[in-house]
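Hi there,

I know you've been waiting on this one. I reran it after we fixed the sequence typo, so this is the corrected version. Both the input and the resulting structure follow.
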Amino acid sequence: MRRHHSMQDETTVQAVQEGETVSSPGEPQVAVPAVSEELEQLKGEKDQLLDRLARLQAEFDNFRKREAKERQDARDYTVSSTVEPFLGVMDNFQLALKSEGSVDQLRAGVELILKQMEDALRGLSVVPVESVGTQFDPRVHEALGSVETKEFPDHQVLEEIRRGYKIREKLLRPALVKIASNHAVVSE
């Protein structure tokens, strides 16, 4: 039966090529020119869709490249605006190293540089963690030891070993501190 269909299909193709109308038993007759026109129209639509797809792919590729460049530009801008305030600090450190003043003059210069550095950090919303004189807070302090005392309340920060910093409310690093250990207050 399969062979019969292929013979019939070949006859139909040959008839279409010769410009005859084609019909199967029980089907309406179809004019070959109408099928050819529809086929050409579909080919044209296909070509238009392929062209549109190629254009959309090119647009997307350009968008991706443009977005990657904009991201890199934003990173570069962020880095440059962050680093810029510290360039003056670097300049002042280099001047301090070249200076031939006394130890007191060098110390005063370093104190000024430290203040300049703190101002630069403050400009970036980076602030130090409150430590000495406050109660120990494990969210912002890291205890490196305790000191036995009866003069200060238990768990009060007595000494800051390394300053901690926050950017707005987010902790960048905890302060390393020594705290009071007052057994008189604990036992009460």
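Quick highlight: Helices lie at 2-17, 32-98, 103-123, 183-187.

Best,
R. S.
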